[in-house]
Amino acid sequence: MGLVNTPPLSAQDDAALLALVKRGDEQAMATLFDRYSKVVYSVALRVLRDPASAEDILQEVFMQVWRSPDGFVATRGSLGGWLAVVARNRSIDALRRKKPMDQVEDMALAAPFNLANEAERNNMMERARGIIIKLPVEQRKTLEMAFFDGLTHSEIAEMTGDPLGTVKTRIRSALTTLRKAFQA
Amino acid sequence: MSATRHIEREDLALFAMQLLPKDEHALIAAHVAQCAECGQALAEVQGDLAVYAHTVDMHSPPAQAKERLMKQVAREKKTVPVERVATPPLEFVGRSEGTYRTGLGSGAYLAEEEPKRNWAAKVFPWVGWAVAAAVAVVAGNLYHERDALLSRMTAQAGRLDQVSADAAAAKQVMEAMTDPAAKHVTLTKAPSTPTPPVPQGRATYVAEKGTLIFLASNMEPLQPYKTYELWLIPADGRDPIPAGTFHPDERGNASVILPPLPKGIEAKAFGVTVEDEGGSQTPTMPIIMAGN
């Protein structure tokens, strides 16, 4: 049959695992969980600061993968990146007790990294952390307040006393610096 | 916000983080849906945010989280559930109508006055219940066995599909590489930049089958959000046909294997351009590599 040559699930790429998930393969689902649960849980925990709530988000995000794997077409970007962003958005929604806004199909994501590869993922994380830590403190704090605390630019401006335009520019500058550093 | 006026990156970042008021969010969503440039810019911002999300301190989820998820996954199986074997209502010969219609534990039978019965009459009803219980246990076991088998079959079918697809692709690659009708083209960088090592590409193309294999080496790294794109330039003067995007690895090697191409198009030449991530339908000048 040749099945002996099939790579183990842990070595398969996201697209192959999603195809198996679509057919109801629970082991493939478990492999995706092993691959990405840490980042999904960590993002949710950072936003919600409550392990039980973060675990609920973890469950919700992965059940979404199980229920509609078609929403994650490989060409639309990296599954790991997508899950991290969705975990953040769902956590902010939970924080604000809002209905989820993001639709899987509506979110394309350009990611130059293969986050399915653990070594590449860890390397990217380390580099990104190194870049963020070197940002001017105002930029770093502003981006953190917007992304992880879900504060609008008006709320940040009110809290910091900075003009609205400055808040927006700081967020953009921080993200631009991050991108340029990866281009270097 | 019009279709002609693009959205500022500042606003795209706030939009991506869902931090704008509903009306502004809706306006930008409508614009992005019809503006490819802003759609691409938004995808880049989402990519930046995904990278930023990964800077968070990492914590492993609680040990029972996976178990909890897998239980929920099992509850929402995608296989067609096997119908449970229905246990018929039990009625016993020789009993008056209505007896045992109510369940044990309902207490209904306690109100009945026990009629005088012989030994067989006392034992016989319990034999019936024992048989019913045995049937239910066997049926339950069969159901679970069938369910597990279905799950295993589904998983195996998925793997088999993938293996078959891989084998078919490998066969196609071999046929293309060894086909005597194949056209072999070497693409080299324009000689104006003689800096060694010179980027080089080799295309193997079978027009009749629309099969193309492109292998490149010494390719220069690209900025993130940029990609190389290969073009098939038809001999009949038609517009260049996009033949796949590629990114070189850290050693400068890259490949495009069996991109979806129409069959029967004779190639005049092949070219490579640098495009925005995601590729383009028309080549962006300059053509950095070409060969015929």
TrEMBL record, chain B:
State the Gene Ontology BP annotations: regulation of translation
One GO cellular component term: plasma membrane
Swiss-Prot/TrEMBL keywords: Cell membrane, Membrane, Transmembrane, Transmembrane helix
GO MF annotations in UniProt: sigma factor antagonist activity
Q: Where in the cell is it found?
A: Cell membrane; Membrane
Where the record annotates domain Anti-sigma K factor RskA C-terminal, the positions are 130-286
Describe its membrane topology.
Single-pass membrane protein
Q: Does the keyword rRNA-binding apply?
A: no
Statement: the UniProt record of this protein carries the keyword Ribosomal protein: no
Q: This protein is called what?
A: Regulator of SigK
Originating organism: Edaphobacter aggregans
